[in-house]
Write a structure and sequence with these properties.
It contains 14 helices and ten strands. The chain has helices at residues 49-58, 62-65, 133-137, 163-183, 199-213, 233-241, 249-262, 277-284, 291-296, 302-305, 308-315, 320-329, 353-365, 385-399, and strands at 17-22, 38-47, 72-83, 86-97, 104-110, 141-145, 188-197, 223-227, 340-345, 371-376. Strand 5, helix 3 (133-137) and strand 6 (141-145) form a beta-alpha-beta unit. Helix 4 packs across helix 5. GO terms for molecular function: triacylglycerol lipase activity.
């Protein structure tokens, strides 16, 4: 998901007040119980509510347009987080509603799989929106993490579908955002909403898991909405081993390359892939190409894409490190405590519908409270996002403290 509301705003250029400045922080000392993770907040632009309302309506999001009340300031936020035990800088987009009289809830919103660095949320352009700005205009202090491997951390290969890095990078941005709000007298409530689609759905649950299992973060999830994420990675492995063609081989190449790097396996890619694909993948996943261009350069048939020895080991007792990693990073056997909704289209062929079915069934069997599965009949991976948003907005608004 590159955008929720991918929009060309040239027609609305008069509505935009673009600027580049570093936000002036108040000098009043802040009482801290832990390290301040905020590095910097650079104001990028101000977007009037009228422009966002028009865009939401033109994209068929009347339910969101009706909630838009506030002009917003848009920032690039840089903060500290951890990658393999080392402190690094990460980044993301922050949207702050202006002239609110009361305290605003925080929304952490998570994007889908991204191969091209230019689509990182913090690479904000006034000619297109990330899609989450209207939530800021509806009164949510909105945080959109780039994720590790994008923005200021682009020198690192994104730890794709790694549960710990997915969760902590978001939690640390939330903490940095809260630090910014406090230093700048922006009133934030204790309410925290999480939402995301595709990889962002996985990141949403990974973040919720990190918060719920570690109360020392000092955060509580009010509600969490996750759409079409690959929560059950063992289920995804079974799909590969079924031998059926998979139309999105870039995702498979990405996760193997990410695990190989993140866990320091440092194996040659020929261990996993046949030539010419083993050589191509290093060049293809370089942060400059789109998913469609990568998919078109790779075999859709697993028997042609993967090294036969590798496939045989996966079907047998080999490749235990990979199998363990997939199990460890799966969310199927975790039990969410906060109100949670899972969304998935029944016709999704990128992340199969059965992935959420198996996850939901396992969570319900473990007595997950306040968990709902919203099925989207006939929905594909792209077309199911809009129905999710239409259900998610009134649900979140119903839980919001006014």
């Amino acid at each position: 998901m590159k955008t929720i509301f991918l929009s060309i705003l040239l027609a609305f250029s008069s509505w935009f007040s673009s600027c580049k400045e570093s936000e002036v922080m108040e000098q009043t000392p802040v009482q801290k119980t832990e390290k301040d993770l905020l590095v910097s907040a650079e104001k990028l632009t101000t977007i009037p509510a009228a422009g966002l309302k028009e865009i939401a309506n033109s994209n068929g999001r009347s339910e969101l347009a009706a909630l838009i009340k506030y002009d917003v300031d848009v920032y690039r936020l840089v903060y500290l987080t951890q990658y393999n035990g080392q402190e690094i800088k990460a980044s993301g987009l922050m949207v702050v509603p202006l002239r609110m009289t009361g305290s605003a809830p925080i929304l952490s919103a998570h994007h889908g799989t991204t191969f091209d660095q230019k689509y990182a949320p913090s690479n904000f352009q006034v000619t297109s929106l990330t899609g989450f700005e209207p939530f800021g205009a509806a009164g949510y202090l909105t945080l959109v993490p780039d994720f590790i491997g994008y923005g200021v951390s682009k020198q690192i290969l994104h730890p794709y579908y790694d549960v710990k890095h997915s969760g902590t990078a978001v939690v640390d941005m939330i903490k940095a955002g809260k630090s910014f709000f406090k230093k700048n007298n922006i009133k934030s409530s204790d309410q925290l909403f999480l939402a995301g689609y595709s990889e962002g759905g996985y990141v949403t649950l990974a973040t919720q898991k990190e918060i719920e299992e570690h109360p020392e973060h000092g955060l509580t999830v009010t509600a969490s909405g996750a759409g079409a994420g690959g929560y059950d990675l063992e289920n995804m492995l079974a799909m590969v081993l079924s031998g059926k063609n998979y139309e999105y081989p870039a995702n498979l190449a990405f996760i193997l390359q990410a695990y190989n790097k993140t866990y320091n396996w440092n194996r040659p890619l020929t261990d996993f892939f046949q030539e010419p694909y083993a050589t191509r993948i290093q060049e293809l996943i370089d942060g400059t190409r789109t998913s469609s261009s990568i998919n078109s350069a790779l075999a859709k048939d697993p028997a042609k894409l993967f090294n036969p020895t590798f496939l045989a080991a996966l079907r047998g007792n080999g490749e235990q490190a990979l199998k363990d990693a997939l199990k460890r990073n799966s969310l199927k056997n975790w039990v969410p405590k906060s109100p949670t909704r899972l969304y998935h289209g029944t016709a999704d062929i990128m992340v199969p519908y059965d992935n959420t079915v198996s996850t939901y069934n396992a969570m319900k069997a473990a007595n997950a409270p306040n968990l709902k599965f919203v099925t989207i009949p006939g929905g594909g991976h792209g077309s199911s996002l809009e129905p999710m948003i239409k259900d998610l907005i009134p649900w979140m608004e119903g839980m919001r403290n006014m």
